[in-house]
Amino acid sequence: MKPLRRRRLIIVLSILTGLGTAIGLGLYAMQQNINLFYAPSDIKEAPVGVLVRLGGLVVDGSVKRNSESLKVRFDLTDNAENVTVQYEGILPDLFREGQGIVTMGRMQADGEFVASEVLAKHDENYMAPEITDAIMKTKVEALQKSYEKDDKTP
Fold first, then answer.
1. Residues in contact with 17: Cβ distance below 8 Å, sequence separation at least 6, in sequence order
2. What beta strand segments (E) does the chain contain?
3. Of 96, 87, 97, nearest in space to 118 by CA
4. pLDDT per position as a tens digit, 78-120
């Protein structure tokens, strides 16, 4: 191989190796920071122990506070399924029953969601787009099922 051709080959291989390394490191970093969003009816599909976001409405009458610590348990719903959430810390000022919230945390093997963060940063009329979509999806599915039942009855 001629020296000029060999030098070009080394340069091209060095560039490709560097580019491959940069892409690999970038993908690895992104994988660590991706938070998947789940609605209460979909959270059973979430991998156990992986950081995910769970959004829904706080079920009325479900908030249980520990009088000796900052531990709180409450249920989230998307009007189809409920999920029990356990959180230890100070809740946002806008947190209340019936409010749409998003929590970040990990699903446990026993089916309970342990939140590390609770987000309720908007007024009572705001609902995160993911929560709105999940609630609308369950309402549409419920309507479709009721129409199917009506069509089958004589």
1. none
2. 36-38, 51-58, 64-65, 71-77, 82-88, 100-107, 113-119
3. 87
4. 888 899 999 999 988 888 888 888 999 999 988 889 999 998 8
C-alpha gyration radius of the chain = 24
Would you kindly state where each structural domain of the chain is located, as residue ranges?
A: 1-34, 35-152
Looking at the DSSP bridge assignments, the partners of residue 103 are 54, 118
For 57, other C-beta atoms within 10 Å of its C-beta total 21
Distance of CA 100 to the CA centre of its chain: 14
Nearest to 115 by CA among 45, 33, 56: 56
Name the token pair of 100.
Answer: 């749409």
3-class SS of residue 63: coil
Place of tokens 């089916």: 111
CA distance readout (Å), 117 to 60, 72, 102 = 20, 12, 8
Which element (helix H / strand E) includes 21? helix 3-33
pTM recorded for the entire structure? 0.62
Predicted local confidence at residue 12, as pLDDT: 93
The architecture that CATH gives domain 35-152 is Beta Barrel (2.40)
